[in-house]
């Protein structure tokens, strides 16, 4: 039986279209190994025409590791590991900024799987950017500076209190999430635990400051890095179709959900795979 999958690169820096797999079925070890190698190389991979159920999405996500249960988003009925991102005029998008998912915890997600459930007539694309490509494009002097810095990440930056003040239940859920997730510090540049490649690890969604410098220096440097990561040559843009699935390496990417589809409605299901504590291992040298 031929289990070879097809991989079509979508840009030099990031992104590939995968065909030859049915994600509704359990993947063989060989198929999963090919998929995972494609993910490590291309950082985000896409599939057309899958139409997976929440249960099937959870089963696939579990092949990558233990799953995160988000403290604030609603989940699919009976499948708490699948969060529901349902955005429309009465529930405005909150992910239309460049961010890496859930970096406000000690062990941010390694991988995320997003499935399109309902799409607007037009718009609603998602963009991903490569932290690896963005890092490699920096000058050696700036790399040396960043290697010694840590960023502070705070859940409140993307989930401010006012967004959860419409009901007492929502406000209590927010207060509990903030109590359970105090600000954490991660290296500004991390080493991928499998590939060993270095990538920027600050994001506009959750990084509030660089630790150790004065506030003005931190603000200026983070402002530059947040703009740098959005350069088009580091990106891939995906135009969703019903049944599409995207899987990305959350350790080395950022993404932006374009909100230019209102008053249309966009419903997505996401599974999030827990990762390890980000570390920087130092500059690699040849043998």
TrEMBL record:
Needed co-factor(s): Fe(2+)
A GO molecular function held by the record: taurine dioxygenase activity
Domain TauD/TfdA-like positions: 7-272
InterPro entries: AtsK-like, TauD-like_sf, TauD/TfdA-like
GO CC, alphabetical: cytoplasm
Keywords: Dioxygenase, Iron, Metal-binding, Oxidoreductase
GO biological process: sulfur compound metabolic process
Family (UniProt): Belongs to the TfdA dioxygenase family.
Name of the molecule in the record: Alpha-ketoglutarate-dependent taurine dioxygenase
